[in-house]
Specification:
By secondary structure, the chain is an alpha+beta fold. The protein has 2 helices and 6 strands. It has one domain. The strands form 2 sheets. A 3-stranded antiparallel β-sheet has the order 1-2-3, with helices on one face. It has a 3-stranded antiparallel β-sheet with strand order 4-5-6. This is DUF2442 domain-containing protein.
Length: about 80
């Protein structure tokens, strides 16, 4: 089962996510869906605080939670622009 082994912040807004299969995901939090207002608190911050993980999601104390499945879904929906 795919799990998050580590998560950190680079450049203030990008999640550096390491998975148990050795893959790394760099996810720009500015790409979080604007229609989901639970992420508004993240979008308002210039620099994100360091998040935690329970293996299946990324979360901030007293803040939002982002599931690994959601991140993978968002990544699969992105198209390559030429």
């Amino acid at each position: 089962m795919l799990q998050i082994t580590r998560v950190d912040i680079v450049d203030g807004q990008t999640l550096d996510i390491e998975l148990n299969n050795g893959h790394l995901i760099l996810f720009d939090t500015q790409r979080l869906p604007e229609t989901d207002h639970s992420y508004d608190s993240l979008r308002d911050l210039e620099v994100l605080p360091r998040p935690n993980t329970d293996g299946q999601s990324i979360f901030w104390r007293n803040g939002p939670r982002i599931a690994l499945g959601e991140i993978l879904q968002w990544l699969s929906m992105q198209t390559i622009k030429k």
